[in-house]
Amino acid sequence: MAAFHKLVLSLGFLSMFHAAYSAAQHRSYLRLNELDFTGLPSDIFLQALLSLLIIMYGVLNVAGNFKEIKASADLDSKSWETFRNIPSFYTFSHRGKSFAA
Amino acid sequence: MGAQKSDVEQLRYWRENNDRKSREVLDIWLNGLWLKVNSLGNEKFLVLEQVCLAALDCHIPNVAETCIESLSQSFPSSLRVRKLHAMYFEAKEDFGTATDILNSIIKADETNSAARKRKVAVLKAQGRTVDAIKELTDYLKIFMADVEAWQELAELYISEQDFSKAAFCVEELILHNPHNHLLHQRYADIKYTIGGLENLETARSYYSQALKINPKNMRALYGLYLTSSALSTSAKCSSQRKKEAAKLVEWSLKEIKKRYSEANLMVTALAALEI
């Protein structure tokens, strides 16, 4: 599924670049024919808009899951027993020794 | 391959959550991960360190030895590996050698906080809590923003029953992390243990704050019930306040009962499945 979303994302970017290139082409065509610029042709405009939407969809799915906006959401399911446990202060003189034998 | 991937993810979850699941970590390691450790890439060394700690915790020295050996082959002059060496001697209860190694690390790198913390742990392992407290306060004079050290100091003070100092340490922790319901709950626990009218009232408000941050905190709910029932029967309390406390008792009792009835529903549902 992740590969599919990456494909969607790259297709969106390709299409966006294509729209940009078409727009540049259109401007140079106008300049060569000494016409006034009134606006982009609707097909280029539509393509740019569509590829933006596709890119948005792809990015949202590639970036991974959202985090809760509440500051303490990560802590809600934690208990004091996990929180108080600090690896830098582990001591080894406990019942583990008797169990190992 | 699929099973291996989930094993690695499980290890990572435990590592990041600070779970002390030494036996389980060791089981994953011995059930075949040790054969595939070279395919893990950069995570290999983190896994090796984790397994080494777990092996020391379970007192299985040969696994720890192999981990330390392969780590020191990759990082011959690393202080972090040397710290593992010291911990290996700690687990063998050769505290003199461990302290020597730790001192040599501190000499090589004065800012190495991990080695200084281990020195505290060495004292703690020997049961010399008072010395450990002294060492840790010296450490905190240099590294004042170290949350873990404040927390450990609070625990050490509690084991010496010096509750007011422990409360100060937890206050410091709350300043660092005001959104953590566990710290509010811990502070209230300590205040409740000290006792007395004022402390009980402080405990009650901190339990309430913990509940406000995380409504699922059962211990805070019980704490609220205990503190307010103590307040409602206290002779020194004014009648106005007694009434308020009685209301809180009623409310917290109702909440606790509600939680239990919800939990019981789950239990009976599971029991029905088993028949």
UniProtKB/TrEMBL annotation, chain A:
Pfam families: MMgT (PF10270)
GO terms under cellular component: early endosome membrane; EMC complex; Golgi membrane; plasma membrane
Subcellular location: Endoplasmic reticulum membrane; Golgi apparatus membrane; Early endosome membrane
Keyword Membrane in annotation: yes
Domain of life (superkingdom): Eukaryota
TM annotation in the entry: 46-63
Keyword Transmembrane helix belongs to the record: yes
Protein topology in the membrane: Multi-pass membrane protein
Molecular function as annotated in GO: inorganic cation transmembrane transporter activity
UniProt keyword annotations, A-Z: Endoplasmic reticulum, Endosome, Golgi apparatus, Magnesium, Membrane, Signal, Transmembrane, Transmembrane helix, Transport
InterPro entries xref list: MMgT (IPR018937)
Signal sequence, start to end: 1-22
First-listed, main subcellular location of the protein, grouped into a coarse class: endoplasmic reticulum
Quaternary structure, from the entry: Component of the ER membrane protein complex (EMC).
Function description: Part of the endoplasmic reticulum membrane protein complex (EMC) that enables the energy-independent insertion into endoplasmic reticulum membranes of newly synthesized membrane proteins. May be involved in Mg(2+) transport.
UniProt similarity note: Belongs to the membrane magnesium transporter (TC 1.A.67) family.
Protein name: Membrane magnesium transporter
Organism of provenance: Dendroctonus ponderosae (Mountain pine beetle)
From TrEMBL, chain B:
Main subcellular localisation: endoplasmic reticulum
TPR repeats, residue ranges: 147-180
Subcellular location: Endoplasmic reticulum membrane
InterPro entries in alphabetical order: EMC2-like, TPR-like_helical_dom_sf, TPR_EMC2, TPR_rpt
Cross-referenced Pfam families: TPR_8, TPR_EMC2
Mode of membrane association: Peripheral membrane protein
Gene Ontology cellular component terms for the protein in this record: EMC complex
Keywords, in A-Z order: Endoplasmic reticulum, Membrane, Repeat, TPR repeat
Gene3D superfamilies attached to this UniProt entry: Tetratricopeptide repeat domain (1.25.40.10)
Stored SUPFAM superfamilies: TPR-like
Record's keyword annotation contains Endoplasmic reticulum: yes
Residues of the EMC2 TPR-like domain: 82-191
Subunit structure: Component of the ER membrane protein complex (EMC).
Role, per record: Part of the endoplasmic reticulum membrane protein complex (EMC) that enables the energy-independent insertion into endoplasmic reticulum membranes of newly synthesized membrane proteins.
Assigned protein family: Belongs to the EMC2 family.
Protein's recorded name: ER membrane protein complex subunit 2
